[in-house]
Structures are given as C-alpha cells and as structure tokens.
Amino acid sequence: MQAATPPRQLIADVSGFVGRRAEIAALDALLTDPGSAVTVVAISGTAGVGKTALAVHWAHQAADHFPDGHLYLNLRGFDPTGQPLSTTQAVRALLDAFDVPPQRIPATIEGQLALYRSILSGRRMLLVLDNARSAEQVRPLLPGTASCSTVVTSRNDLFGLIAGEGAHPLVLDLMPATDARDLIAGRIGAGRVAAEPAAVDLIVERCARLPLALAVVAARAATHPRFGLAAVADELSVARGSLDSFGSEDLTTDLRAVISWSYVQLSPDGAGLFRLLGGHPGPDVTVPAAASTAGSGAGPARRLLSELAATNLVTEHTPGRYHLHDLLRSYASELAGAGDPREQRAAVVRMLDHYLHTAHRAALILNPYRHPIALEPAASGVTPEPLAGYPRALAWLTAERPVLLAAVRLAADTGLDRHAWQLAWTMTTFLDRRGHWHDWLALSRAAVEAADRLPDPQGQAYAHRGLGLAHFRLNQYEPAQAELSTAIGLFAARGDASGQAHAELDLSWTYERVGRHRDALAHARRSLDLHTAADDLPGQARALNSIGWFAGLLDDQSTALAYCRRAHALFQQLGDPVGQAATLDSIGYANHRLGDYGEAAGCYRRAVAMFREAGDRYHEAQSLANLGDTLLAAADTGGAHHEWRIALRILEELGHPDAQRLRHRLAVPVS
Length: 671
What we know:
By secondary structure, the chain is mainly alpha-helical. The chain has 31 helices and eight strands. It has helices spanning about 20-30, 50-60, 85-95, 110-120, 135-140, 160-165, 175-190, 190-195, 195-205, 210-225, 230-240, 250-265, 270-275, 285-295, 300-310, 325-340, 340-365, 390-415, 415-435, 435-455, 455-475, 475-495, 495-515, 515-535, 535-555, 555-575, 575-595, 595-615, 615-635, 635-655, 660-665; strands at about 40-45, 70-75, 125-130, 150-155, 170, 285, 315-320, 320-325. The strands form two sheets. The chain has a five-stranded parallel sheet with strand order 2-3-4-1-5, sandwiched between helices. Strand 7 and strand 8 form a beta hairpin. The longest helix has 26 residues, at about 340-365. The chain is globular and about 95 Å long. Mean pLDDT is about 90; it is low at about 240-255. It holds the Pfam family AAA_16. It comes from Dactylosporangium cerinum. This is AAA family ATPase.
C-alpha cells in the first residue's frame, strides 16, 4: 500500500505545565520502556483535574520515542453543547490527519477502520484520544498494532477498556498541595508565593487543589501584580457558588467560585462576549465568527478574545481558533440563560447567519453549477467571510466542519429550522467530495425534519434530494429512490423545473445501479427535457451523457454515440474536464461494443489522463479497467493485464469491492 502522508501533530504543549511528576514517570515507564508490554494507558479523573494537560505535555516530552509522529483527537465525550464524536466522525478525522485522499476512503465504516489500521501498521506512533465518554467510543479507534501506543483520557474509569483491551489505568487525583503551590508559583513567580505562604495555602484549599481552578486564580493574580494574595483568597470566599456538573459538593462550590469571580473581573464587553459564547455549539470559534456573534467588528472581537484568553476563560489552541473548556462553557451557558433571552437569541441567529452565509459562498465556489437556494439577508452585525478562491473555500469548510455539524444540530434544537436545512444544503458538495457520507446522511435527516416542521416546501424538496443522494453514496438504493421520488414531486408542485431535472437525473443513476436500464433511460430523458426548458447547460450536458450511457447498456450504440458526443462538446464549451472524461469513457464503451477497439482504446486513454489530472482516482480505475477489457478483445492480453493491474492497485488503495472483479480477470494466464 502506498504510504500515507505523515499525520498532523498534537495541539500546542501546555504552557507552564507544573507537577504530576509521578504520573509522568509512570507514563514513561509504561509506554517508552522497551521492556513494557503496555500499549494503552487510560487516564481518568474528575473534570478540570488536568488529564488533557498531562497527556499533551507528556506526549511532547516523549516525542522522540515516536518517530512516525503523534495524533491528537478530542472525542468530546462530555461536551455540554454537543454529542460525543461518533466512530464515523472519529475515524474520518484520523484519516484526514494523514491527508488520505477522499477517493481512497471506503464508504463503509468497517472499510474506513480497516484502512486506518493498515496505515498505522508497523509505524511507531502515539495516539492521544482525549475526553472519551466510554470504552465503546474508544475501542474501534485503537491501532491494533504493538508498534503504536495510545493514551486515553476520560472522566469515567473506562473499566471495559482495562478489562477487555488490557489498558493500564492511571487515575489522577487532585493535585498534591506541593504541586499546586508550584503551579501558582510558575504562573505568578516564586517570590510572591514565598512572601504570602499562608494565603497561598488558603487559595490551594479553596480551589480544592483542582488544576483548572488554580490556573484561573493564578491568571487573576498575574494580571494584578499589586493585589495581595490574601485579598485574592478572601475574594474566593465571597464568591462561592456551585456548578451542577460536579458530583462532589465541595468541588462544586469551589470551582464555581473561581470561575464566577474571574468572570466579574472582565470588562463589560469581555463579559458580554463570554456570555454569548455559551450559546456557541463548539468545539471552537474563530475571530470572524465571534465578531458576527457579538455583532462587532473583527478588531474588537480579537481584543475581547485575547482578554478572555489572558484570564484562562478561553484557550487559543491553534492560531485564531479559541476553545472553551466544557466547564467554562457550562458556566457561560448558565450566565446567558439568566440574562435577557432576546439578547441571547439574537446572538445565536447572528452566529448561525455567519456560518450559513459563509458556507453558502464556499459551496458555490466548490460547485458553481449547483441548483441554488435563496438565503434571507444576514442579520445586522453579521460579516460573512470572503473566501476568495477554491483552496480558501475548501480549507474553510475543512476547518469548520465540526462546527457546522454542531450548528445544524443547534439550529434544529432551538427552532431555527430554516437555518438547519439551509446549512445542511451548503455542506453537501464538500461532504460528498471528502467522503463524509455518514455525516451527510445525518445532516440530511435533520434537514428533512427541520423543513417538515416549518413547513417549507422548498426546503423539503432540497432536503429530500440531499437525503436521497446520501443514501445513494452509501449504496442504499431503495431508500435513495424513495427520497428522490419525493423530491421530484415537491419540486414539480412548486414549478421548479431545474430542481426537478436534477432530482430526475439523480434517480436515473439509482436505477442504473440495480440493473433497471430502461427506467434509468426514461428518467434521464425526462431530466434532459426539463434542463433544456430551464436553459441549464451543465444539467443538459450531464443528462446527455447519462442518456448515451444508458443507451449503450441497452445495446443501442448509435444513439449512445450521438448523445455522448453532444455531451462532450457541451462539456468542452463549459470547460469541465471531469465531464469531458466521463463522456470519453462512455464513447469508449460504445466503440468497444461496435468492435472499433482502436477508437475505444484511444477514448479510454484520454479519459484516464483527464481523471488522473483531476485527482478522480475511482473513475480513473474504472476507465483503466475498461481499457483493459478493450485490449483483451483486441487480442492484446499482456496489455490488458497491465492496465488491470494498475486499476487493481488503485481500487485496493480505495478499499473498493470492484477490486475482486479485477482479481478474477487477472487470474486468467497471459497467452
């Protein structure tokens, strides 16, 4: 198998990490000692106890022991505003970290996991799976090879992982008092700590030796060097409260005291942005999104995020992307809930408008020939991102994919159903090209439900079409046909000929996949008529080629050539190289069936070159296989085997079932 690109590295090391010397030594002994048989360590402990800080700090410290790299993945097991990462989402994130081309990624979750493990096989790598909900969430993601090590963090004990997978447990308790004092000293200076030892002991006690609480208090003291530590300790006593997410009453009281006390020291605008971020779905937010959420410019938003970062209320985990610890997000949500509901609702609408209008721009850059939707104007104060050019649009969608998925769920949960189905629409081309078909299926189901609740016939039509296409990509042809038929009826009822035409053509391919070629041809002809009436040239080109292909399957090669040549000329006029390659493949098939093997081979070779140039590996393999068939028919058995071997290598890398058919062909000896 071709080697994958080295993975992206971990998030930045934890600045000022102090303590946990015994745990660091234990991790060294367990995962870097050549005599150790341990490959998985499960770090558990209460929220805010420093599990992530320990895992990431140790991973950087031990980097030389893992020469093939290390991966970090937040499984979001206890995120208060979102669902834990599913196996499908997690394995795709890990494959994306290796820059695996979408064409190589199998459609099934089983195939994706097999590809992931094959990439890791034999490599000396470290995997950090952070914030796991359960052993069941982690188990499918374990590398399954002794050459790789895994560190898992969770608030739960992950007993199933320990019992079933041999993971070694490492339980983090509250910080030892000495380490807690060292943490404070590392943030504010040893001199201040030595000058007021009694006050430091009181701070440590009132923070319950919880690292998150200690870090926030230390940040407060560091930003006010003239404050005495005794005054800081006294303020902690005054600001006592509770966070419901803690099970221990003492920890609950102390942590809320720390966060609430830090919050009240913010500027009014900083406090306002912190409250508004409680309504953001996460997992992180950028400066432009925060600016739109607040209805401010990018400059003020950047300054306010810097203020929040300076007090440890947010973390800039990568340049320009800010994360709220889940406890802090819970607190911000509570504050927002206690405020003016109209203010918070308006902020959520602005935030969703920001993502909707920016994602809409990105979607039309990726595919300018999409059947468009009409957006309502963005709310006042929203500034969508410009996204100049294809690479920028693709990069934005890649970075924001987890946020956009969460935004659809948030919109549906808060009754903003128009945002829900339209956001789902904006992501379909991206999810399709990147192979995130399970995400596409989930979003499309949410979009259908949202459009039905409105009710919005336009939204229902788009949502059912999206759901049908997602089923189609996952080889679920019967539900695909049902959803696409529903979409056709909805588009027709609205008098939307273009939408109906697109859905008819989509439906035609579901019939082709199950061998009903006459039905496929009928729907493709209907699509051409509708596209022609709507003066939609890209749609006409796609329909013409489909008609030609289906005619060829029905052994009407003269009709096939006539329609495919018209399609090829139209794709040339439009400047669409992938469309040209597809029609050349269809023309090659018709010439093969007519016995003109030289012409067929020439068409296939041109199609292969164009698919290869476009990075469309699956269709490159298909045309190579077809070229091999033509060469075999022309009595060039050696040439046929050569092309089939190249096609087989591609299909094996893609994990595609068509590979088995080529293995059977190659089993025939060369004469």
